[in-house]
Amino acid sequence: ASEAEEKDLVIIGGGVAGYVAAIKAGQEGMKVTCIEKRGTLGGTCLNVGCIPSKSLLNNSHLYHQILHDSKHRGIEVKEAKLNLTQMMKAKETSVSGLTKGVEFLFKKNGVEYIKGAGTFQDEHTIKVELNDGGETTVKGKNILIATGSEVTPFPGLQIDEKRVVSSTGAIALTEVPEKLLVIGGGIIGLEMASVWSRLGSKVTVVEFLDQIGGPGMDLEIAKQTQKILKKQGIVFKTGTKVLGGAQNGDIVSLEVDSAKGGKAETLDAAVVLVAIGRRPYTAGLGLENIGMELDERGRVIIDSEYRTKIPHIRCVGDVTFGPMLAHKAEEEAVAVVEYIKKGYGHVNYGCIPSVMYTFPEVAWVGQSEQDLKKAGIAYRVGTFPFSANSRAKTNLDTDGMVKMLADPETDRILGVHIIGPNAGEMIAEGTLALEYGASSEDIARTCHAHPTLAEAFKEAAMATHGKAIHF
Ligand code: FAD
Ligand code: NAD
Q1: Using a 6 Å cutoff on CB, does residue 207 contact ligand 2?
Q2: What is the 45 CA–ligand 1 centroid distance (Å)?
Q3: Of these four, 289, 292, 293, 390, which has the most CB atoms within 10 Å of its CB?
């Protein structure tokens, strides 16, 4: 890029937030540059997050199913052997296909892509240290900060991505650890615990709170999830805090204690996964050069139009407020470009689905029962178990349920919570219902194909009036 040319939009970070904004800006006819230092586009999600983890979740589930869940279905397999190297290659194929796909979309939409690390020099100028050596500067009328997040470290435990790993190391282990200890029973902890437990590890999850699932999961669903995952062999130590850890050769040990205080014990394993959350990432961005401050959790402070206190510098994705989810980042990316281009945009923060890709999957949208209780909002509950759903029965996968929360007066849907096979796909129906302000009766009167798992969704809506047909 030449120093003289001022772009309509310069984006720092080519993760989901940054790359989606870049494509959208290109579509809107803006001159746009995206700076990314990783060497590939797609950020955490495509390179070391959503995509590689889902590849491992899918293939480890298949392996586990062949080993433990095929004989009674009439499939006898002589020998099933794990080839971890090949499983990792399959993961890498998915990742590289998608990251290259984004690069193609950049070309298609006229986005300039600079591989390097961006630092604010002044309010309109970004200095880029190029990955290939040397540096350049880029100027922007508008600048978008989309630098994402990084793992929150655990004090006293040095992450080496071999013995003490973050999710990045956990998706790239070269052998199945005999024992795996997971600190944090949130989404990353449970997805990774599932992968390695299916591949043969003895997994223990240590969670500080009394329930697993991380923030947002309905408590009733979280309890059921824990029961089901426990049946799969994962050991849970909830209400337990980690006091400290030490690495001794090939063994990592953790000292843990009841969160309320009690008798400390020592747990050891070949690998410890630190999964206690992620924190905004702004290192090296040079925010101090433009006098920009962060909030107490390190987030870039923005207004409802994604503006920082310097109005032409905006910010979206994991590095600012809200849930750290790829689809939330994507919605914001489109909205922020609309704000810049047209002056208005839209994200409905009350209607962002969450999915945990364990087996069965757990998915939800809207408010949980504990949210409603806390806010003093009246609600009616309708539940329907998959054990009463014909498709779940034919598939021999009957664990789980659909739970619907609706306003007792208006019947408007307030929240949908699903644990069950394909919950992550089914939640799209709940999200659409919530976005359109549907009532539970609207859903109950909508014809659903038979036999499908989605019939459980319809019946949960009927159950909010106590009128499910099959239960
Ligand atoms: P990021 O994806 O972190 O991208 C930011 C990019 O900016 C990075 O590539 C970084 O290299 C670059 N960058 C930073 N600073 C600079 C700089 N100064 N100059 C140049 N480049 C810079 N979410 C889901 O919705 N579904 C899932 O299934 C899911 N699974 C996940 C699994 C794991 C293991 C993890 C860790 C996360 C997962 N997430 C998932 C969360 C999801 O990855 C994030 O919400 C999403 O990536 C946020 O996008 P972002 O663009 O804001 O940030
Ligand atoms: P999280 O916030 O979901 O869960 C962290 C868990 O660790 C919580 O349950 C918390 O109580 C526990 N914890 C915190 N400190 C602890 C301590 N000292 N000892 C024991 N437990 C402790 O965070 P995460 O699982 O690390 O995930 C990070 C982010 O990535 C989340 O925002 C998540 O939404 C996102 N992500 C999403 C998906 C998905 O959408 N499927 C998958 C992976 C990650």
Answers
A1: yes
A2: 5
A3: 292
Contact (CB, 8 A) for 146 and 253: no
428 token code pair: 């799209």
ipTM, 2 dp: 0.98
| Cα 276 to Cα 164: distance, rounded to the nearest angstrom | 13
Cis peptide bond prior to 360, omega within 30° of 0: yes
Angle between the 16-27 and 326-342 helix axes, to the nearest 10 degrees? Answer: 30
- Of 61, 124, 448, 450, which one is the catalytic site residue? 450
Question: Which of 330, 336, 334, 338 shows the shortest CA–CA distance to 308?
Answer: 336
Give yes or no: 72 in active site: no
Which pLDDT belongs to residue 1? Answer: 45
Residue bearing the CA closest to ligand 2, atom 40? 355
CA angle 98, 101, 103 (to 5 degrees): 120
CA 129 remoteness from chain centre: 30
Write phi, then psi, for 191 (nearest 5 degrees).
-65, -45
Nearest protein Cα to ligand 2, atom 30: 324
Three-state secondary-structure class, residue 135: strand
Give me the chain's average pLDDT, please: 97
In 154-282, which ranges are continuous DSSP H helix? Answer: 167-170, 187-198, 219-231
Q: Which residues of the chain have pLDDT under 70?
A: 1-4
Q: Which protein residue's CA is at the shortest distance from atom 33 of ligand 1?
A: 49
Give the separation between CA 280 and CA 364, rounded to whole angstroms.
Answer: 24
Structure tokens at 58: 């899918």
The whole-angstrom separation of Cα 43 and Cα 46 is: 6
> 10 Å Cβ neighbour count for 146?
32
Alpha-carbon gap, residue 187 to 209, rounded angstroms: 14
Give the residue from 61, 60, 48 showing the smallest Cα distance to 92: 48
- Alpha-carbon dihedral sign for residues 120, 124, 125, 130: positive
| 464, 380 Cβ separation under 8 angstroms | yes
Ligand that lies nearest to the alpha carbon of residue 356, given by its number in the listed order: 2
The pLDDT of residue 309 is 97
Q: Do the Cβ atoms of 317 and 17 come closer than 8 Å?
A: yes
Q: What is the distance in A from the centroid of ligand 2 to the CA of 186?
A: 4
Q: Which two tokens stand for residue 203?
A: 């997994």
